[in-house]
Design goal:
This protein is 54% helix and 4% strand. The protein is mainly alpha-helical. It has two domains: 1-30, no CATH class; 31-91, no CATH class. α3 crosses α4 (51-62). The two termini are 20 Å apart. The model has no long low-confidence stretch (mean pLDDT 91).
Length: 91
């Protein structure tokens, strides 16, 4: 969220989004050597995936999470990774 808003030129909105996110999920998953290695492996096999996307996918896979919420259809190409469109994920 921070990256998205900063690239759109709105650091304030990004900082606010991070605050809101951390109020709902106060303990985000850490990024360690295992996540970095998994991201590198994913990038070798999924060339359209961004580096940031590979890190996100690695966390989902290594933490045994149910799915990733994203509009990025590149995640659909990763076996065993379920992608939920944000509009489908919010009731």
């Amino acid at each position: 969220m921070l990256h998205l808003h900063v690239t759109r030129g709105d650091v304030g909105k990004g900082a606010a989004a991070v605050g809101e996110f951390l109020s709902v999920l106060p303990r985000p998953f850490p990024i360690g050597a295992g996540e970095v290695q998994e991201a590198a492996t994913l990038l070798l096999h999924h060339r359209r995936l961004s580096t940031r996307g590979a890190v996100h996918a690695a966390v989902v896979r290594l933490q045994g999470l149910e799915a990733i919420v994203s509009v990025d259809r590149d995640f659909d190409e990763i076996p065993g990774l379920r992608r939920l469109d944000p509009e489908e994920a919010v009731p």
